[in-house]
Amino acid sequence: MVRRSGGKTGDRGGRGGGPGQLRRCIVTRTSRPMDDLLRFVIDPDGQVVFDVDQRLPGRGLWLSAERDVVNTACTKGFFAKAARANITVPADLAERMEEALLRRCLDFLGLARRAGQAVAGFEKVRGWLREGRAGLLVEASDGSRDGRDKVKALAPGLPVVQVLCGSDLGRAMGRERTVHLALAPGRLAKEFERAAVRLKGVRGDREGSGAE
């Protein structure tokens, strides 16, 4: 990782500062755009809380979206050092983070479906890809490699996310299971991709291969 100057380890009150604002990871000390990081705050009871939307009031403590970094922060006292206070780290903080990010991904997919900005199923996805209507391809992490490769071959260069399993994608799309899904270009696709990349980082190598 490359160190950059100008980053901040904390902030007051969420996402102030505008797009591209840098924050510094309290473990690695590297600075990255806020969209690439995980934000935490300390609640009134002194407990570390994951701020999935990066909008909770209070001084933000930032971590790189990597499972090893999260584990190090939880077990080596980095939150307490950064907060300069006695704090409590929930034993299941990583699991809470994963659940929150998964819900965030599913929420964005649900919004895209209701807005007519998402289609599911091999034929519909293939149609969107051939017509150039897709801005992001989403493939189930537990789908067959052959099937995923066939769909991805129709859209070389298109961003691909494959961190969610078929049942999760199906839940978002109002069906039992979904393997192939396409999102139209726009804010919802970008927000979903951002949440999915952070989810992949929190999960580590346990599921899927994430965004390509």
Which keywords apply here?
5-stranded mixed beta sheet; disordered N terminus; 212 residues; 2 domains; 60s Ribosomal Protein L30, Chain: A; elongated; 3-stranded antiparallel beta sheet; Hypothetical Cytosolic Protein, Chain: A; disordered C terminus; alpha+beta
Structure description:
This protein has about 210 residues and is α+β, with helices and mostly antiparallel strands. The chain has 2 domains: about 20-90, YlxR-like (Hypothetical Cytosolic Protein, Chain: A, 2-Layer Sandwich); about 95-210, Ribosomal protein L30/S12 (60s Ribosomal Protein L30, Chain: A), CATH 3.30.1330. The protein is about 35% helix and about 15% strand. It is built from 7 helices and 10 strands. The protein has helices spanning about 65-75, 80-85, 95-115, 120-130, 145-150, 165-170, 185-205, and strands spanning about 20-25, 30-35, 35-40, 50, 60-65, 120, 135-140, 160, 180-185, 210. α3 (about 95-115) crosses α6 (about 165-170) and α3 packs antiparallel against α7 (about 185-205). The chain is elongated. The two termini are about 20 Å apart.
